[in-house]
Amino acid sequence: MNKLTLSFALAIGLMLAVPCSFAAGNASQEIATAAAHAQMAAAAADKSTADMHLHHAINCLVGPGDRRYDAQAGDPCKGMGNGAMHDLGHAPAEQVRLQQALMQAELGLHADSLDTTHAAATRAADALKASNPNDD
Description:
It is a single chain. The protein is mainly α. The chain is about 70% helix and about 0% strand. α1 runs antiparallel to α2 (about 45-60), α1 runs antiparallel to α5 and α2 (about 45-60) runs antiparallel to α4 (about 90-110).
């Protein structure tokens, strides 16, 4: 009976641990994808292309359940999770960096000039690279 109880407790522990690891994996993928799109925005030849990539970065950060999500802009993170900010879980320092990246992406999206958009996209990419827990 004691072995059965131990086995049951171990099985429950594994079931509880698995979703946490999937959530962290999703957040890592979403952050990496958002960073790649922020970098593409920073290198874009025109404002329209930069804005498209910033929308992609924002969508990866906030996920489809968020008011800032724009389905018409496209979502390169579709199927990865619910947005990095939601999937990351309780990691205050990482959440702050993701908030900073989101703010910079939104600033770049609403900027009047390509130079200002490039600068904001670069800051967003830098914040995302610093926040990705699995990036080395």
